[in-house]
Amino acid sequence: MRSHLLNDTTAEHYRRSVTEGIERVAAKLATTSRPFTGVTVDALAPRIDEIDLDKPLLDTAAVLDELEDVYLRDAVYFHHPRYLAHLNCPVVIPAVLGEAILSAVNSSLDTWDQSAGGTLIERKLIDWTTARIGLGENADGVFTSGGTQSNLQALLLAREEAKTDDFGRLRVFASEVSHFSVKKSAKLLGLSQDAVVSIPVGHDKRMQTVALAHELERCEQDGLVPMAVVATAGTTDFGSIDPLPEIAELCSQYGVWMHVDAAYGCGLLASVKYRGRIDGIERADSVTVDYHKSFFQPVSSSAVLVKDAATLRHATYHAEYLNPRRMVQERIPNQVDKSLQTTRRFDALKLWMTLRVMGADGIGQLFDEVCDLAVEGWQLLAADPRFDVVVEPTLSTLVFRYIPAAVTDPAEIDRANLYARKALFASGDAVVAGTKVGGRHYLKFTLLNPETTVEDMSVVLDLIAGHAEQYLGESLDRAS
Ligand SMILES: *Cc1c(COP(=O)(O)O)cnc(C)c1O
């Protein structure tokens, strides 16, 4: 069994084994004609159930054959141009190469003595990101597992910096279309159940700053303490960007921590054409970026950045065995001092490889392409009487719903749209997402693949209309 340990004597086994796996994935990429096969849970579960984990196959090729059957054949492929559902990007090859290297070397980024250069590479990428944001000389940050963790850590710092340690009185302000991780964080941080104050958005799905000002005022009048305002730069559903300069103004007026959740909108940090859309982000106290959303990076790759490096001390604990206090004096860079995690992947390497091979403009151009594609999709939808489209895109998301001319019952239209999404998924021809707007069911394209064309969108809209019409036809039959 020692032949399976990666070391000096097994380098050749490693090369062969990993190459075999890469060959399978490469073959898959070359032949995948749909984003999904439409496999059902009921069809797949028994195949996985029947595998006896206590009876190993002892042979890599056999295991890869089995993997084809239980995973590769029916996986949901984000690289396919008709995968239009969630915030999953196709990944760039330099990042995948980075992933292969980082897992083989297996550095752990908690301490210098488990990573060496890895720590410095991560720090340089943090500095690169804070410079792109414009957070200033004292900025810092750390890679995280994702936007959820970044938001949690940012709000932890905000809680610790707040003017009271009576957690029950703290309030967090976020728009009604902010990410649910804000509420989850509030719960984890021991805030009260009604700690997150939901601020309404306008038709453009951006936070209404007049309402925010009103709520901040009321908070103080009620003897409560505003802890943080979470501005979303790229809402998950609409890609809308809250008015950052106005929010920054209010935050400084009320002395409130400004957090910008740019999990999605961070792609604009590399944009060649649209960087201006997140102007004001530089005034944040903390920022969430998800490179795995809009930098074409494999999951996980994310970071939390702060304007004032000193605030990261709120996540610092010293353990004698790992990062004793004296190491701070010795200036040994231990990233665990800044992180909620201990053992931590060297995810930064993927971004490093990407920037070194493609450059920031290379990534930014890809992101600009999907933003442009969204505008074309919007025009397509706006001109199509079969569809109602919600808001002109700022990033790369389109929310719309099929509205048959002959049907007036909104609940029936809801059902037709829900059915269309399900039927499309079951066909595997395309994958789209869904959400609710004003209590009604809508469908969503999240465009993150520069390979998607207007033609793809047009075909998928026809498929959706076809499924919805079929549902309505059958529904008529049922009624008569
Ligand atoms: C996706 C998303 C998150 C959560 O990020 P994960 O990486 O999925 O944990 C947070 N905020 C926004 C706006 C998002 O779109």
TrEMBL record:
Source species: Streptomyces resistomycificus
Family: Belongs to the group II decarboxylase family.
UniProt xrefs under Gene3D superfamilies: 3.90.1150.170, Aspartate Aminotransferase, domain 1, Type I PLP-dependent aspartate aminotransferase-like (Major domain)
Keywords tagged on the record: Decarboxylase, Lyase, Pyridoxal phosphate
A GO term from the CC aspect: cytoplasm
Gene Ontology annotations of biological process type: amino acid metabolic process; carboxylic acid metabolic process
Modified sites of kind N6-(pyridoxal phosphate)lysine: K293
Cofactors required: pyridoxal 5'-phosphate
GO molecular function terms noted in the UniProt entry: aromatic-L-amino-acid decarboxylase activity; pyridoxal phosphate binding
Protein name, entry field: Pyridoxal-dependent decarboxylase
